[in-house]
Amino acid sequence: MLILLLLFAVPAMPVLATEEIEIPLSDGSDAFITAYPAEGDALIVWFPSEFGPSPRQAAVAKELSSLGLAVWMPDLHATWFLPVGRYSLGDLDPGHLMEIMQAAHAQSGKRVFLMAPGRTAALGLEAIRRWQVEGMPQDAFGGAILLHPKLYARTHDRGVSAG
């Protein structure tokens, strides 16, 4: 629902060229990010699912950019040389996702929206919580858009309580 409101609340704007940027992280890695700039005041940080970035996401990001919503699409798998797969991001420190979102806000001055599918949704929510605890600026975060979130650490067997 929130994404629909965002799509209709922003007038159509010309699409700016995509950029490939790198953000240095505290563990010595550089986060590889495809950025779709826009002139609006919102920036969506769209983390990939555990199965990696999808080519279809680029078309959606480009459309969001044309509507005035900037998009950053970090490639978490390329950053840490991880294989794609169901539990590929399971050991990733949510603090690194927080660093990416902090950089998005610091570099753009825009309100950041988290967008995360699948198991990445839980990592993204943990990152937001850490940012809040560390003193997130009041105007830095706009909300979370979770796409089919999987908020359990592991998938339980059929008939077994997730409890």
Query: In sequence order, what are the helices and strands, one letter per element?
Result: HEEEHEHHEHE
Main pleated-sheet profile: 6 strands, mixed
- Helix fraction? 25-40%
- Gyration radius, rounded: 16 Å
Enter the CATH topology name: Rossmann fold
Q: How does the overall form come out from the CA principal axes?
A: globular
Number of helices: 5
What is the residue-averaged pLDDT?
Answer: 87
Find the count of extended strands (DSSP E, 2+ residues).
6
Strand content: 25-35%
How does CATH name the architecture? 3-Layer(aba) Sandwich
Write a concise synopsis of the structure shown.
This protein has 163 residues and is of the alpha/beta class. It contains five helices and six strands; from the N terminus they run αβββαβααβαβ. Strands 1-2-4-3-5-6 form a six-stranded mixed β-sheet, with helices on both faces.
Task: Using brief descriptors, characterize the structure shown.
single chain; 163 residues; alpha/beta; Rossmann fold; 6-stranded mixed beta sheet; 33% helix
How does this structure look, described?
The chain is α/β, with parallel strands linked by helices and 163 residues long. It is built from five helices and six strands, in the order H-E-E-E-H-E-H-H-E-H-E. The chain has helices at residues 2-9, 55-66, 76-80, 94-108, 120-133; strands at residues 19-24, 30-36, 42-46, 69-74, 111-118, 141-149. A six-stranded mixed β-sheet has the order 1-2-4-3-5-6, sandwiched between helices. Strand 3, helix 2 and strand 4 form a beta-alpha-beta unit. Helix 4 (94-108) packs across helix 5. It is globular.
